[in-house]
Design goal:
Layout (H helix, E strand, L loop, with lengths): L1 E4 L2 H14 L5 E5 L6 H11 L14 E6 L2 E7 L11 H6 L5 E5 L13 E7 L5 E7 L5
Length: 141
């Protein structure tokens, strides 16, 4: 599914739709250049599933853990793993079948190790619009 997002309000609505469609256990990969809105989309998804804390980029921590109405949310940033491609600590989170996992820069880790059922690719367009390609097992209306 390809979408054009014109502003932050539309990105928020998309995040809410994604959040409402999640059941728990999903592994979501986010891809896109720096500043394209991966963390912002994650914030909107998190809020829609009842995360009370402020969601911030886990770049330096690699993993942030939040409680939600749909179980645990693991927000992972693999940006610093580009050279390594793997960190065994990720297994503790990414193989948790009950938690929702959102991985920014998922393409920087060894993809064959994990079963990303949903992949969201975000591209910045002129006038701050975004092209969002959603691939995989996600039903939003």
């Amino acid at each position: 599914m390809k979408l054009i997002i014109n502003n932050l309000d539309e990105l928020k609505m998309l995040g809410e739709k994604i959040g409402k469609s999640l059941k728990g256990g999903e592994l979501i990969g986010l891809k896109g250049n720096l500043g394209v809105g991966k963390t912002t989309l994650t914030k909107y998804i998190a809020k829609s599933i009842g995360v009370k804390e402020e969601v911030i980029s886990p770049t330096f921590n690699i993993v942030k853990v939040y409680e939600s109405n749909k179980g645990m949310l693991y927000h992972i940033d693999a940006y610093r793993l580009e050279e390594l491609k793997y960190d065994p600590i990720l297994d503790d989170y990414l193989f948790d079948d009950s938690a929702i996992k959102i991985v920014e820069w998922y393409n920087f880790i060894e993809e064959n190790l994990y079963d990303f059922k949903i992949v969201i690719d975000i591209k910045l367009l002129p006038d701050s619009k975004r092209e969002i390609n959603i691939m995989g097992d996600l039903c939003i209306d």
